Amino acid sequence: MKTAGKDGLQENSAIARLRDRLRKLYHGRTPAAFRFQLVAVVIDLAIIAFFIATPVLQDKPSFLWLDYSAAALVAADLVARLLASNDMLRLMKQPTSWVDVFILLTLLMPTAFANLAFLRILRLWSLSRSGSLWRHLEMRGLRPWREASHAVINLLTFLFVITGFVYTFFFRTGAGLENYIDALYFTVATVTTTGFGDIVLPGMAGKLTAIVTMIIGISLFVRLAQAIFRPAKVFFPCPQCGLQRHEPDAVHCKACGHLLNIPDEGN
């Protein structure tokens, strides 16, 4: 009994050390943590590139190997983030975790979820909410462009989601790069309301798809314009009320009046 208890303590201690190590890698600011976070971002971008290219690659002999490799990476990242979290339940309730779980299911069962594979590009939106990504950008003096970058990523995510949807449900009969480019061309022409009319979607479903694409696309363009042209604000969560955006020279939070200590860009 004593041996069993001792083994249990050692196991708990090993898990605690692992969680502490992962917490430092995912959330730390040491050189080793930054290197790890940068590698994680690069791997994420490679996975996203694979998701974008999926319609072209899905008939290739190596597709399943790439698919399951991506599944292993997504699963490892999800488990590691859970272990690195101080509150696993709270993390699993976040939309980014739901996106990761859904993407993992589509990767593990590519045939069953073939018609929903275009939603994997939501991983790009999930990456844009990653704290490690913005820590690297802020180190390079790009903090003022954070909101504009969010708007660009939201627009790109929407474009590729709609392109995947249009390709899957309207252009799938002629699989390949040419048809995927046609779907992307239709999406961009519709979002920008250019409406050349040389490529149109058939039937009522096609018209409804075009309507939804135009409405949401215009909204995202307006959001992007606002992020670029309105006065820049800094991201600094108020310790009292949590308000994140403030004027660069703000001394007090405009929501609750709490005293702020916003660091200079050079610090």
From TrEMBL:
Q: Which GO terms describe its cellular component?
A: voltage-gated potassium channel complex
Does the entry feature the keyword Ion transport, yes or no?
yes
Membrane topology is: Multi-pass membrane protein
Q: Does the keyword Ion transport apply?
A: yes
The biological processes this protein is annotated with in GO are: action potential
Q: Name one GO molecular function term.
A: voltage-gated potassium channel activity
- Coiled-coil spans in chain: none
Q: What is this protein called?
A: Voltage-gated potassium channel
Give the organism, scientific name: Rhizobium loti
Q: Which Pfam families match?
A: Ion_trans_2
Mind telling me which residue stretches traverse the membrane in this protein?
32-53, 65-84, 96-122, 151-171, 183-202, 208-225
